[in-house]
Structures are given as C-alpha cells and as structure tokens.
C-alpha cells in the first residue's frame, strides 16, 4: 500500500469505513452502559463515531486510537477542546501497543477482521471489564451461496455467514446482545464522499495518484455489484466473565 497517495485520496473524509451514527446509538443502547462509562474506539480512523460514543451516557469517557499518524492527527485536531475524549496512536495488530484501561465498551468498526475473527475476539476480551461489551462489524455473506464476485470482494478473507459469526463470538466467551447488517446508507456514507474527492483529484490531473484513484473507485463499484450478497454484520456482545 502506498500510504502517501492513500492519504491524499482519504484526507479529511468524514468516515474511514461504512456506518452511521444510528449504528453507534443502537449498539450503545444494547450495551446498557453505566454513567461515566469508559469506552474505546479501536482503530477509529478519523474519529467519525467518537462524538456519538462520547454522548452515549452521562459522563462517558472515550479513548480513541489508530495506527495511522494521519488519522491520529485528524482526531487530535477534531477533539482538541473535548476533555472527555483522548486520542493516541496504537496498532490494533500489536498487543503491546493497546491501551491497558479495562473498558466498559469497545467499539471496533470494520477493523477487527484484520486480526482474524477469533484472535480479534480474544484480544478485545482481554481489554474489557467482566460483563463489558464489544461491538464490532465483521465481513459477512448474506447468502449461503455467494457468487465469485462477492467472495473476491474480501480479498481472500475467510468470510462467514451470520450463523458462523455468532457461533465464533459465543465460543470466544461472549453473550450475543444483538446483530444487524450495516445498511446500504452506511456504505454510501463512506463511498460517496470518497468518490467526490476522487473526481476532484482527477480534475487536478496528478498522474501519480491515478492508480490509487482507480483502486478506490473500483472498490465502491465492486461493493455496489455484490451488496445483496455480502457486507458487514454489526454484532454487540457481552463478555460473559
């Protein structure tokens, strides 16, 4: 990945993955968080969900982290005057980097699967208080017979169906509180601003960006072709003990 051209395409986008504020409200409502809850936004990107998490319950405190300096800088600027939000650089894939605060809830939108589902569930479980909640979105096939294009969309990731995800979460020591698909509106909330930026950058005629612009545009096109067969399943689950 050429991160310099990636950030030129993705700089200042409102989101770095599919989802809506309604998803966060739904998940925090199921979580039943206590007043003053300590919440983690893991691999938060530019922090699209941080404000909603901070408003989830009175006195909530949010720690948001991401491994990419560009996103961390965006979050620090965005939440500079928000005392209940702290931002740090950490790599989800490096256990030693992760915050050691025991959390009442971890929100991880579209990133846990980079660890692999089982390992990701184990890592997150270790950062939760007993009885605390993990909410995450995971690649999911919405049909038992996904076509080759739907399978190819996740670039070889061992994508499960809904029952397979629920089974893995339960086996990892969680109680399922609820699941739902990330809506088409959530995907478009990510892709449409990105596509607008792609058009702006194409108009500038910078040839060194062409490959990244084409790659990002194709991702949106590919998702629209397979959206009835595959997408993200948002799962909210409580650590059992």
UniProtKB/TrEMBL annotation:
<dbReference type="InterPro" id="IPR029063">
    <property type="entry name" value="SAM-dependent_MTases_sf"/>
</dbReference>
<dbReference type="GO" id="GO:0032259">
    <property type="term" value="P:methylation"/>
</dbReference>
<dbReference type="GO" id="GO:0008168">
    <property type="term" value="F:methyltransferase activity"/>
</dbReference>
<keyword id="KW-0808">Transferase</keyword>
<keyword id="KW-0489">Methyltransferase</keyword>
<dbReference type="InterPro" id="IPR041698">
    <property type="entry name" value="Methyltransf_25"/>
</dbReference>
<feature type="domain" description="Methyltransferase">
    <location>
        <begin position="39"/>
        <end position="131"/>
    </location>
</feature>
<protein>
    <submittedName>
        <fullName>Methyltransferase domain-containing protein</fullName>
    </submittedName>
</protein>
<dbReference type="Pfam" id="PF13649">
    <property type="entry name" value="Methyltransf_25"/>
</dbReference>
């Amino acid at each position: 990945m050429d991160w310099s051209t990636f950030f030129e395409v993705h700089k200042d986008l409102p989101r770095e993955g599919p989802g809506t504020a309604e998803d966060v409200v739904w998940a925090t409502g199921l979580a039943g968080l206590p007043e003053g809850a300590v919440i983690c936004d893991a691999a938060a990107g530019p922090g699209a969900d941080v404000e909603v998490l901070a408003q989830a319950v009175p006195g909530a405190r949010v720690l948001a982290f991401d491994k990419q300096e560009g996103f961390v800088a965006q979050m620090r600027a965005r939440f500079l005057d928000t005392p209940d939000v702290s931002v740090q650089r950490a790599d989800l894939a490096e256990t030693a980097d992760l915050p050691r605060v025991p959390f009442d809830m971890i929100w991880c939108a579209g990133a846990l699967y980079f660890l692999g589902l089982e390992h990701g569930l184990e890592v997150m479980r270790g950062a939760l208080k007993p009885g605390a909640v993990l909410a995450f979105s995971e690649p999911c096939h919405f049909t038992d017979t996904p076509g080759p294009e739907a399978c190819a969309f996740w670039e070889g990731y061992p994508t499960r169906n809904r029952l397979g995800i629920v089974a893995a979460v339960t086996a990892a020591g969680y109680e399922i509180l609820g699941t739902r698909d990330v809506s088409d509106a959530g995907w478009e909330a990510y892709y449409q601003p990105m596509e607008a930026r792609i058009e702006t950058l194409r108009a500038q005629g910078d040839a060194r960006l062409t490959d990244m612009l084409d790659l990002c545009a194709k991702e949106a096109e590919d998702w629209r072709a397979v959206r009835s067969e595959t997408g993200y399943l948002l799962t909210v689950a409580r650590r059992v003990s």
